[in-house]
Amino acid sequence: MLNKTNEYFDNLNLGAEIKNQTLANDLRKRSTGAEQILWEQLRNRKVEGVKFRRQHAIRQFIADFYCHEVKLIIEVDGEIHNIETMKERDEVRTFELQKYGISIIRFTNEEIFYDMNKVMEKIRAKLKERNHGI
User: Counting C-beta atoms within 10 Å of the first and last residue's C-beta, which end of the chain has fewer, N or C?
Assistant: First the structure.
């Protein structure tokens, strides 16, 4: 029988395999410039008092940023996400994660670099929408 701590972490990762958790750990060490900038805005409960995790393994996926309290993923997309096969993969990923009540918002690197105020407004609005009194 699982204790509450193990149940919390099982729900947090939704059964992500160890290899994905290891990969997420490696990705944390190699964040992109845009991810680093956004992380400075999100870390230490700076936004609406909620905790974000970066490069977080969920099932077979790795989210750039994840807030478990409101089940929100924030993705920072570089140029590669404009390729048709990547767009399709992103759509499948979104569909799969939505089955678990997880919402995803996406920003381009350019939005992070050049319009951080608008990015943060959208994140705050999404958090308030999903918060439901948390």
Answer: N
